[in-house]
């Protein structure tokens, strides 16, 4: 014997939409030619295996010196996916450039702050949205009172290969080793009181004043405010020593500590 559900029985929600913040890489296009961009990314792949593999990235359009119809956004999307990078949208650029990118499946994204919140669904009778919305500028963050700072995130154990830790809006302190294949991310500074063997990404939200400190510096990759250096590009950095990494202009500098 089977029982049909009562028409009055409330149905459970099959899903909910929520707005949230994510730490995404922005690839600023300095050259609009796909044949120049993709091979350069492939070269970075060879020097830092796994760094961008399957990573969602945002394409920055502010630096493109070309007309919208001169940019092969469709080819860019296809070739990025072919090398296992996942482009999800664009930031910056002119309205015409954003519309051209959206035609290739790259919608304009809006920088947002604040905590996760519910995103209401439109009623069934609502008219569909227009094809393009210019992203509204995000409000500037409110200054904190003098002498008050958000507490740093402290991880008092080693970070294993495959782990990713992100300190949102604050510094990250690791009391232990960041192993190869691990990734530590902070919107502020990163302190590693142990061996830094994996990837360290500091200065989210374009914080060029952020720094990376490590008692034993031997990373796969180090990045500050979007500028990065892989292991082979560390130059004369004192590998295996206590180091502070910081930005000077657009160049990474590695100063010994102590």
Automatic annotation (TrEMBL):
Keywords: Cell cycle, Cell division, Septation. Residues 15-87 form the Septum formation inhibitor MinC N-terminal domain. Residues 112-146 are annotated as: Disordered. One of its GO terms (biological process) is regulation of cell septum assembly. It comes from the Bacteria. Residues 154-245 form the Septum formation inhibitor MinC C-terminal domain. It holds the Pfam family MinC_N. InterPro entries: CAP/MinC_C, MinC, MinC_C_sf, MinC_N, Septum_form_inhib_MinC_C. Residues 120-144 have a biased composition (Pro residues). Transmembrane segments: none annotated. Interacts with MinD and FtsZ. Cell division inhibitor that blocks the formation of polar Z ring septums. Rapidly oscillates between the poles of the cell to destabilize FtsZ filaments that have formed before they mature into polar Z rings. Prevents FtsZ polymerization. Belongs to the MinC family. This is Probable septum site-determining protein MinC.
């Amino acid at each position: 014997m089977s029982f049909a559900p009562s028409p009055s029985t409330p149905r459970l929600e099959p899903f909910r939409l929520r707005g949230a913040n994510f730490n995404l890489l922005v690839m600023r296009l300095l050259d609009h030619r796909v044949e120049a961009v993709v091979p350069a990314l492939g070269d970075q792949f060879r020097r830092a295996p796994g760094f961008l593999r399957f990573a969602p990235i945002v394409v920055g359009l502010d630096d493109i010196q070309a007309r919208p119809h001169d940019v092969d956004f469709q080819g860019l999307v296809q070739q990025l996916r072919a090398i296992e990078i996942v482009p999800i949208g664009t930031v910056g650029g002119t309205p015409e450039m954003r519309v051209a990118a959206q035609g290739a499946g790259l919608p304009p994204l809006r920088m947002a702050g604040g905590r996760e919140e519910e995103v209401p669904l439109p009623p069934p009778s609502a008219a569909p949205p227009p094809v393009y919305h210019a992203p509204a500028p995000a409000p500037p963050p409110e200054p904190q009172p003098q002498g008050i700072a958000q507490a740093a995130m402290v991880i008092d154990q080693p970070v294993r290969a495959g782990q990713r830790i992100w300190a949102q809006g604050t510094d990250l302190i690791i009391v232990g080793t960041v192993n190869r294949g691990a990734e530590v991310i902070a919107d502020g500074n990163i302190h590693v009181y142990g061996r830094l063997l994996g990837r360290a990404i500091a200065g989210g939200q374009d914080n060029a004043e952020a720094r990376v400190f490590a008692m034993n510096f031997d990373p796969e990759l180090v990045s500050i405010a979007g500028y990065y250096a892989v292991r082979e590009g560390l130059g004369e950095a004192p590998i295996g020593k206590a180091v502070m990494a910081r930005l000077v202009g657009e160049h990474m500098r590695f100063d010994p500590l102590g």
